Amino acid sequence: MSGHNNNIQQQVKAKIAERGIDYKQKRSDLASIAENSLPAYASVSAKARNYLDQGVICDLFEGAAPYRARYILPDYQKFLRQGCNYLNLPPAHDIHSAINYLQILYHYVPSIIDHPVYLGSIDELLSPWEKSVSRDELKRVLKYFIMHINRTFPSAFVHMNLGPKDSLTSRLWLELEGELELAIPNLSFKYHRGVTPDDLLELALTTAMKASKPYIVDDEKIASMWKELAGEGESKREEEVEYGVASCYNTLRIGGGSHTLVRLNLREAATKSSMKAGDITLFLEEVVPEAVAALAEIINYRASFLVEESGFFANSFLAREGLIDLKKFTSMGGVVGLHECVEILSGGGRMGWQENAKDRLATDYAETIIQTIASKLSLHPGKYCDGSNGKITLHAQSGIDTDLGTTAGVRIQIGKEPTLFAQMNLAARLQKYFTSGVSDIYVFEPGAKDNLQGLASIVKKGIDKGIRILSINNSSSDCVRVTGYLVKKSEVERYWKKESLRDESLRFGAPTLKNANILGRKVRSTKENKEDNE
Q1: Which of 81, 179, 187, 301 has its CA 20 to 30 A from that of 450?
Q2: Could you give the angle at which helices 135-152 and 168-180 cross, rounded to 10 degrees?
Q3: CA 395 centroid distance within chain
Q4: Residue of 244 and 507 predicted with greater confidence
């Protein structure tokens, strides 16, 4: 025990003396050291612990005793409508009070980081008051709101939503994001065909070609999925099942969230199981069921600890005042490293490609593996997952900075991308299995900004194929999408010089930029706006 204590003391001293991070970052890291000092998973099975030790399952190094839900999506509309007794705030009465109240509440919303990971659908929250001020005044207050978020919540995992309906607030917000070109907050735009005007989608793409955000989200599919996932009985209630996009690209219920996220590393699963080319049957019938069972066991352990032992929901004013509800929460089982897993199992086949029989086999393997994981995961009840009808939700995990040779989620490895629509076809085949977040990233040449209709056509084709979330980026933008979040290339250079920077995400983003060859993504042209077989 003394050796364990000495090790902790050494970690604490090293963190206190670390250069290049400020007081708040040190305080957060010191809290993480305390969390990770507790004995890990004493009551889980030896098999599950073995998967953890091997790195096949990863709890993202967050300790075995969670004391706040990982992702929380408060019902901000309810908050503005009813006020908050804990914060001594009456209902909002104009756009200034609404913004001020949101700024106050954000500071009290916990998550896995020190800041909220969901800031709400800002246009829905503020548009009721947008006509009470002039256009110039509205743009001015929104600009200061964005600057407040950027300066006080220095993490690219802080996430805001817009759309799918048109409003002056959404248009001005998109304009401002393009003008300011900030990495924070992360942003998603909900697109719904027949509801979202084409020129609003084009404005979102204009912003994306400047600031590499927002994500484009298929609102119709995801809203429908969550209504079905929440359960037939609940979907018939008067209360609508609503979702938000949080953190990287996590789709979760508003008023709820996710207790935890634990991931299955498919590359490690294939490697540690000594899989060889052609062993797909063994992998699907033996490795996947056992690994998924261990994944569910660890997820349920963490959710049970959070609810039963930490007292988070019992003590939170967010729960007392109805801004979050335990019955709207789920837990997330993530996957990562599909690309490498398929390469191993197919003997070098390239998923997404159709050049030869081995490539086509790899592409089929990719879908079969994810389909099997989704099926097996659904067999394991999720503790305190009432928000998803008692099921653990499947998530394409965006990777972490220490991942080497492991591609995020179910994406194609950078540098091995096929043609534009071949990549989109694969993404469409895979994304339909994910209930709590999945995305793909497409980088375009700078000139694409002059062909917004071409970009919009590509986005619509992708959505029609089945893509649920995609990111459109400009290869020359200072803002670069790392995996699910953004960093600025100019600040990455300062990070490596050991300068103390506000953006906490740089500590993850800068190494990932290098380790995962992020800047090596294939650059596309709108001239590719044509099916490969046409």
Answers
A1: 187
A2: 50
A3: 9
A4: 244
| Burial bucket for residue 343 (CB in 10 Å: 0-12, 13-18, 19+) | buried
d(CA 110, CA 119): 12
Considering only residues 85 and 508, tell me which one the structure prediction assigns the higher pLDDT: 85
Q: What is the pLDDT of residues 416-463, one digit of tens each?
A: 999 999 999 999 999 999 999 999 999 999 999 999 999 999 999 999
Gyration radius (Cα) of the chain, Å? 22
Q: How far apart are CA 316 and CA 303, in angstroms?
A: 16
**In 265-419, alpha helices (H):** 266-272, 280-282, 288-304, 312-315, 317-320, 338-346, 357-377
Separation of alpha carbons 117 and 115, rounded Å: 6
* Distance, C-alpha 296 to centroid of its chain: 20
Mean pLDDT to the nearest integer, 466-494? 96
Going by the DSSP 8-state scheme, the letter that residue 387 receives in this structure is: G
State pLDDT tens for residues 329-364.
999 999 999 999 999 999 999 999 998 999 999 999
Q: Which of 160, 211, 210 is nearest to 190 (CA)?
A: 160
Which of 327, 331, 333, 437 is CA-nearest to residue 387?
Answer: 327
pLDDT at 275: 60
Cα–Cα distances (Å) from 469 to 210, 251, 384, in that order, read 19, 10, 27
DSSP 155-173: -TT-EEEE-SS--HHHHHH
Please give the pLDDT value at position 278.
63
CB-neighbour burial class of residue 356 (10 A; exposed 0-12, middle 13-18, buried 19+): exposed
Structure tokens at 44: 């889980």
Question: How confident is residue 534, by pLDDT bands cut at 50, 70 and 90?
Answer: very low
Q: How far is CA 75 from the centre of its chain?
A: 19
Residue tagged 């789709």 (tokens): 251
* Rounded distance between C-alpha atoms, residue 89 and residue 109, angstroms: 16
Q: Are 309 and 235 in contact (CB under 8 A)?
A: no
